[in-house]
Design brief:
There is one protein chain. By secondary structure, the protein is mainly α. It has 7 helices and 2 strands, in the order H-H-H-H-H-E-E-H-H. A two-stranded antiparallel sheet has the order 1-2.
């Protein structure tokens, strides 16, 4: 089984790289959409962000599975950094899904596009007013996205590299 470890490390690292690469469109959208007022442009940005969702979820799944398998093979489940890393990544995933539902799926509904909440598809509704959409966009803060999407994964990387406890 130990012969698999280099391949698992490779897959784990590659999937992390692919995850962040695929997620780049969503990151760019999160920063740019705050400047937009045109419903068509907002919709186009939301659509572009969705294009990479499959790649993002598959790479996140591979990263998670390899991250769960390796501690068993290496017999390091007794290390605190392993548990902390897994817990932090689960929290990142849950928080990101919650933020996406509250912010961007809601925005999609507001501009009159079909949307999805909790895995259920809904047809387009009449768009909200320009002022309501602009007020919602003004509330979109990227600070939480940065902390959850960059700082916490950086802490996980630090834990995996330095194994402090």
């Amino acid at each position: 089984m130990l012969a698999l470890v280099p391949w698992l490390v490779f897959l784990h690292t590659l999937s992390a790289l692919l995850f962040f690469l695929a997620h780049g469109t969503s990151v760019a959208m999160a920063f740019q959409i705050r400047k937009e007022k045109d419903f068509a442009r907002i919709g186009a940005m939301l659509d572009l962000s969705m294009v990479t969702m499959s790649a993002m979820f598959i790479s996140f799944l591979v990263m998670g599975l390899t991250g769960l398998v390796m501690p068993f093979i290496l017999q390091i489940w007794n290390k605190g950094w392993v548990h902390t890393s897994i817990l932090l990544m689960v929290l990142v995933f849950i928080r990101m899904v919650m933020m996406n539902n509250k912010r961007y799926k809601h925005l999609r509904r507001m501009i009159g596009q079909p949307y999805m909440i909790g895995g259920k598809h809904f047809p387009a509704e009449a768009p909200a007013s320009q002022s309501e959409v602009e007020a919602h966009i003004k509330k979109l803060r990227v600070e939480e996205l940065v902390v959850v999407g960059i700082v916490i994964p950086a802490i996980v990387l630090w834990l995996m590299v330095f194994k402090p406890f």
